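Why do we care about 3D structure at all? Because function follows from shape, and shape follows, mostly, from sequence. That is the central idea of this module. The next example makes it concrete: a single protein chain, its amino acid sequence, and then its structure expressed as tokens.
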Amino acid sequence: MTTLAVNKAELAATIALPDPPPPVAGQARFLVEKFALTANNVTYAVHGDDFAYWHFYPCAELGLGIVPVWGFAAAEASTVEAVTAGHRFFGYWPMASAALLEPAAANRAGFTDGAAHRAQLPPFYNRYNTAGSDWGSDDLQCLFRPLYATSFLIDALLSTRPVDTLLLSSASSKTALGVAQAAKGRQRVVGLTSPGNRAFCEATGYYDVVLPYADVAAVPGDAIAFVDFSGNGALRLDVHTRLQGRLMESHVVGDTHWQTANVAELPGPPAELFFAPTVAQARVAEWGAAGFDARLSAAWKRFAGTLDWLKIETASGRHEVADAWADLVRGRINPAVGLIASL
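And the structure:
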């Protein structure tokens, strides 16, 4: 039984720790069956302190952190009447083989983790949903259910903007692909990516134009919204500098190129941080919970029907998962691969 903790000073390095003990009153222990590893998880680690991602599953070992992951787990032992052994849930688990939660407000749809240390954290991450097939296979849900929700929210925001072009960096990332597919045909969608990933991005059919990072000046459009999934400060400065006068807005979403420092002073519009849970709460307030779910479900079904490019690969056990995590941190994962892990 393994909890895989990462070295906060060297994110590619991991160490195995014991899993949590049996549950006491008010707790349930879950066996984590499978979870996805994507660039999104690297963002959680990079922003573990400033966005409090390390706080979801605190680690007592100094200098180590437990990365949250999205996937499925089954209740192994429970002291909570509404959560019985064998019940499966989708949610935000530790990168581990087991997790200890405090289920609250439990019903047929799922429960909320009521642990005191999570009370001030975004509710979006504290909800655990009863396993189902509305989002497709388990693997697809692990890979896309949280990421596509972010794609959907970004697209919902940009669809109302008076811009003719959406410029997406890290165009091969799964969240960027979701945005591109949703916006295609409404606004011009331009992807920026590494030369090695250009052919893949073009083959998806989601982008009108795909350019290597060096060709920022060639981005078409008179009114451009930039969505930065890379976190590369040098690239962000280049985009703001070269597209001055045409760049209407700039949004920062992820950190796939997290090693490159950000630049505080940028020409043109300010770079605004996109935080999905806050935007989701605003959309629910605007559309109502049922309206939000209906819009998200319809958008997801449209995107899911285009995933013929996706190749599922698996990593099992401490050593394979640790190696896969290190490759992910170092940017060595094929963008066409969806990585499903299990400890």
